[in-house]
Fold this protein.
Amino acid sequence: MTQATVTEARSGTAHSGTTERWIAIMGGTALGLAGLRRGSWALAALGGGLFLAGAAGVPIAEPVARRVREGNLGLGDFGDAAERLPGVAGLLPTAQREPTTTQANVTVAAPPDKLFRHWRNFRNLTELFPHLDAVEVLSDTESRWKAHGPGGVEVVWHSALDKVRENELITWHTLDGAQLPHRGSVMFKPAPGDRGTEVRLTLVYQPPAGAGGRAVSRLFGMAPEQQAREALRRLKRIVEAGELPTIKGQPRGNRGMREVME
Amino acid sequence: MRALCWNGVNDLRVERVPDPTLLGPHDAIIKVKLSSVCGSDLHLIDGYVPTMKPGDVIGHEFLGEVVEKGPEVLRLNRGDRVITVSIIGCGKCWHCQHEEYSLCDNSNPQPAYEEAAYGHCTAGIFGYSHAFGGYAGSHAEYIRVPFADTNCFRVPEGVSDEKAVFVSDAVPTGYMAADMGGIKKGDIVAVWGCGGVGQMAIRSAYLMGAERVIGIDRYPYRLEAAQMKAGAEPLDYTRVDVFDALLAMTGGRGPDVCIDAVGMEADGYDTGIEYWYDRTKQAIGLENDRPAVLRQMIECCRKGGTLSIVGVYGGFIDKFPMGAAMNKALTFRMGQQHGQRYVKRLFEHIEKGELDPSYLLTHKWSLDDGPRGYRMFKEKIDDCMRVVFTP
């Protein structure tokens, strides 16, 4: 079984379709409100959870699967680079090799060169990926990345740049020995009209064993698609608004404070 | 400081909470002088908005004084008397650049709720649940305002606090309702709901050239204010059939523009079985919003007319007469207010004496009376239009 069919199969089962999504949202709404009406926060929370599950349907699953089938991950020429990576193209049985491809898109009201420069300065990336502590540039193409997991466990890996096209594209892959082998690409494309730049971030995780998504979540406390989406949201907010809006540290009522402490 | 906190359905308490501090470089701290209740708060208090958390400070319509500002706040100074638009814009994203501030991409720090429910996230709102950012509200002695340069506006010297405070929300919401109606000379406008927003919509419709404006409600004191203060022709929907009356008043055409200033908790007692159908479904959580007003507007509006919706809806509605809407070629415009777009114009109208929102302020109470004030506002006791707290 090739990588492509694996991903396709996953998208068929793991990602919910539109109907399921709506059922989840509607059920979530109903439960959430029922919970509130009855003063039951547990029920309301369950409703809220379903609410969110409805949205986690990852609408990009099928398009991504199709691109994988067609050998084009939206990575420009990066597809070829992927072929050169050991173990990526279905060398092992599927049970042990489930690649997780995730993609996020955002439009930022800034020109491509500004965003390209922001991303190319790896020091800025620690702001975009909350689990990332430091990126150390070792040479023109190689860098050393240091991150932490939910329990504060340190994770270190080396990464190499594959393609750098000024103001358009950056692709990279992890080098041998990475605990969580992955490759990624970020593309910058002028948006139509005066809308700025369309940014696409694609991450393909190739964990040594087990289901990809779960391994990523375990290591970084965040599902891959959430990670990609959050990174682009932060990029947008930092570049456009000049800060990451927050409510952390604002006043709350006593009951609220107690709840936070518990 | 003291603040009015939501602790559960119909459970508001005045509590002692820490003072707010600057959290971002574009923040300002405002010492609150006046802070008004709003009809949309009732949806939170009644439990129709599912992302409230115990301890949340509510309130979003306020006037005060700048007492502290972050390093990147350039337009404001300490001591400035300002109003703050209830809905927060970052000022920099595409939507803010196009004066669609309530659609701001960046001001909501908790976008996951709305992305799940609506597909996209919209702007953060003060004191208006975590789906809209979870920002602490204005029923407090102090409030932190993010992106203060975009959201705070100095009040012109000749304009009193009582006139200015409603430029935070009620006035721009009503004004935008009329604006979205695309009112042309000779148009007849009908406004459902004669609370603060409805009153302002009526007045604004005249400012934009409406020939006649009809105000629909069931509370005599609101209809009286609509008539005496805003100049509307009053219509009590408990006494007449709204459809028949509107057609009789418009030569059988129906109003050219219909404005919904009611939203998801429509009374709709006149609709009988329909009201109880929606009320029941809403109570057991099968429907979020009761759309009695919407249905009636679609029925009454003239062919090719415009429906302008500023009453708040949160989720799903039922039995939406799409066939009537489509075949009558109606235009729907709606949204939370883009107040920042209108503030300058509104203060000009106020300064010229063309608009005076101060009559909305029927009760000025201490913040300590917050829970009692909301009860009075909700039960529409003592001809209460708006309670405004003085922290």
In short: Chain B touches chain A through 65 residues (CB under 8 Å).
